[in-house]
Amino acid sequence: EPVELSEFINQVIEPYSEIAELDSKQFTTNLMATGIVLIDRQRIHQLLVILLDNALKYTESGQAISLDTMIKNKQLIIMVNDTGRGISDQAKKHVFDRFYREDKSGSRATGGTGLGLTIAQWIVDIHKGKITVEDFKPQGTTFKVVLPIK
Ligand code: ATP
User: Fold this and answer.
1) Which regions of 5-140 does DSSP assign to beta strands (E)?
2) Which of 7, 35, 46, 51 has most Cβ atoms within 10 angstroms of its Cβ?
């Protein structure tokens, strides 16, 4: 369905800027992708919710989250960056697996089922896109989504 990108992304991030502010986290955006694209609005919304929820979950107050979008070679690129605890090389290999969570303890201090990123991967797959994770030592994680657009 035709989606106007600026309006769509702004709608998605609205609650997150508020939550970040309440948690004393810096939330910034660099939204270079504009115009009308054909994407599944609800599913891409859900994908962004998964990535932004994680970014908030795995950062502490004083740390930062950013969302960047751009269009390059007929692809919509979405990056969710955080300056949180980062992600180990071991975990990087498995984060998209079903039920994988870095915290194995039953304490569920950070909550979650380990299904979020599995669903994210599935949403990206049905759009014939790609999702990758990078970490920036000593701190922080970036999830990058590349979606072919029309
Ligand atoms: P939920 O299902 O509620 O999202 P979850 O966060 O445990 O719970 P996933 O979203 O699938 O599940 O994430 C899997 C694992 O990937 C997490 O347990 C965590 O170890 C790691 N992870 C995901 N996002 C980040 C991030 N931004 N920074 C650090 N680790 C992350």
Assistant:
1) 26-31, 36-38, 64-72, 75-82, 130-135
2) 51
* Ligand 1 center from residue 57 Cα (angstroms): 8
102 lines ligand 1 (CB under 6 A): yes
Global confidence as pTM: 0.93
- Residue nearest atom 15 of ligand 1, based on CA coordinates: 101
Identify the CA nearest to 27 among candidates 38, 43, 16, 39.
16
Question: Does ligand 1 lie within 6 Å of residue 54's CB atom?
Answer: yes
> Is the ipTM beyond the 0.95 threshold?
no
Ligand 1 centroid to residue 87 C-alpha, Å = 9
* Residue range 62-73, pLDDT digits in tens: 999 999 999 999
Q: Given phi > 0 = left and psi -120 to 50 = alpha, else beta, which region is 121?
A: alpha
